[in-house]
Amino acid sequence: MATINDIAEKLGVSKSTVSKGLNNATDISEEMRKKILETAVELGYTNKRLQKKEKKLCILIENMDFETPNQFGYELILGFKQMAEPEGWVVDVVPMTMEFQRLNPYGVFMMQQGYQAAFVLGFSLLDPWMQEFRTTRFPTVLYDNYMKENPHIASVGCDSQEGFDLAVKHLMRLGHTKIGLISGPLDSYILKARYHAYINAMSKYGLEVNEDYIGLGYYVSESTRTHIPRLLEKGVTAILFSHDVRAISALTECSDRDLRIPEDLSIIGFDDLPMTAYTDPPLTTIRQDRISLGKCGYYALTCLLNKVPIGSILLRAPLIVRKSTGPVPPEKSVLKIKASESISAALGKPSAPTSKRSKSKTAK
Amino acid sequence: MATINDIAEKLGVSKSTVSKGLNNATDISEEMRKKILETAVELGYTNKRLQKKEKKLCILIENMDFETPNQFGYELILGFKQMAEPEGWVVDVVPMTMEFQRLNPYGVFMMQQGYQAAFVLGFSLLDPWMQEFRTTRFPTVLYDNYMKENPHIASVGCDSQEGFDLAVKHLMRLGHTKIGLISGPLDSYILKARYHAYINAMSKYGLEVNEDYIGLGYYVSESTRTHIPRLLEKGVTAILFSHDVRAISALTECSDRDLRIPEDLSIIGFDDLPMTAYTDPPLTTIRQDRISLGKCGYYALTCLLNKVPIGSILLRAPLIVRKSTGPVPPEKSVLKIKASESISAALGKPSAPTSKRSKSKTAK
Fold first, then answer.
1. Do A74 and A29 share a structural domain?
2. Is the pLDDT assigned to residue A335 strictly greater than 50?
3. Which ipTM did the prediction report?
4. Contacts of A112 (CB under 8 A, 6+ apart)
5. Cis peptide before B95 (omega within 30 of 0)
6. pTM strictly above 0.90
7. Same domain, yes or no, for B148 and B189?
8. Residue A141: enclosing H or E segment and its boundaries?
9. A364 domain residue, yes or no
10. CB-nearest partner of B316 from A159, A162, A311
11. How close A277 comes to chain B (CA, Å)?
12. How far is B7 from chain A (nearest CA, A)?
């Protein structure tokens, strides 16, 4: 473990200067303080005195609303605090920007503020600190992000693959075979993961994977407006969305176009935000239990603080079936018959007797 | 939640008979007691009185030695107890057999013994209780097994993919390109996972995936004896093993054949058993931190007991480099040159100047 001496030696300054830098004294230059802190981080120096004074954690949050119960981050923070505060931790919620990250190295920020560890929400792959997370020695838990090999970093999230498997199985049972995906752009770890989970689920159950069934875009309502008509033209009868917010915007878009949900199109969201129970119709969605995710975030941090080399915690992602999914539209019933047969095969069940269905097919 | 009444009604017997069955009274038949317990499990009845009397957990263990520190299960159990016992739990270690599972349903066993939850070690996919785990309502944590969708089950294990990625990268840097795998049979979840992790790692780094480089077998020394000469004939210069025990048996086998480790063949194990630091040569291996795995097993159980729907916890699997891996043998140096180039490409680094190497190639 590095000492104040090591820092002084490396910078060629006195121990008292280093001590001033580490303790925010005012009689050294800002430039020197920055050098001292950066060197302290580089050498793995831990400011025991500061850390003992106060048990402090931070939640760094970006690209995510968290002020009201209907917003995604609210319960994540609540669950984390429910675990951390009874154990004597002060938890600061710190909204973050790329600009701030560019100007302040992560390790220096953590040391300057006296944080022992951080829970990181909503970062994209482009965030400058993602590079620093590769090598940081500050215990850091990423929600919906993953950093390989660094034993000071862990991840928590929901099992996207399990969620999409359940969603695709549910739609197949309703006769759907042409199932689309509308998602945000693939510039985040989690959206990439959901994209692959969609592809895997479609392949696993023997459904056609077709680029024409996929729509990606940054702006929620614009991409809904562009992609829904295109997917419908390609014969898509059900759409998975990367987030509830996008699925809810699709409900509005469909209502504007006189498309009935679920009679004309089935829709499944991702998140189970509180409001999804009250949309028209109530939304079928994949649940992220955010209180539990927050709790697991805290648990993962305590593991890292205690040198238990946890890499990831995944929660279950159950499907909450409400009213936005229904049987495939009747005019696609030939597809439906084919689907029923392939469902039985794909889901590993004996096919139901087909005589009745064959008859109705012949009668057409 | 089902009551004694519900059980009595379903079986058409009196409440007092049900009560006798649940409390191990001696004045009812064994057959009736079994019926009562099975119905209690089926209806989701929880015997509150029994559970309040004593906080009891069990560790069910099969196919795994655990009596001495050098055996795999020892530290798993130790880590679990280190967390559970200070919180007032009694932890029973229960060796398990397939025969016992065939005769006693899991739920009945748990209820009869008064266990609130179980940590399950070493089960194969063929174990009868694996079927019951699909639907059980007893909180159950599986080490190195996975059960999808059941919110009462969670998994803990090490990240095999990260481990094999590190192992293959390490061998590539030493010039190896023909890397083999010797593993137990694919009748367990974890051996399947490691098999796929090996294939993925080879593909990811642009190395040839070849069935001839893989050897599977149940009996450790027999399969080592059969597969090592075969893999060497195919030009393999390094072998990954699914367990340290197999890698250690390979050290003996190679010594018998006057093959030098690592000069003639590089060997990597999996587990980091204590003895691997003292083999001749000391074994390079992928670490499973068993104390931490045991601790995470307990944490996952407490999550399930508190309705936090955890699905899986994966620990880091770092590579511990010792002396059983070395540069590719000189007679394979052509391969080595090619490898160096493809390593740079695969690992995403600019290729080192090749002039010196080309010269030595020409000189041959």
1. yes
2. no
3. 0.78
4. A24, A37
5. no
6. no
7. no
8. strand A140-143
9. no
10. A311
11. 21
12. 30
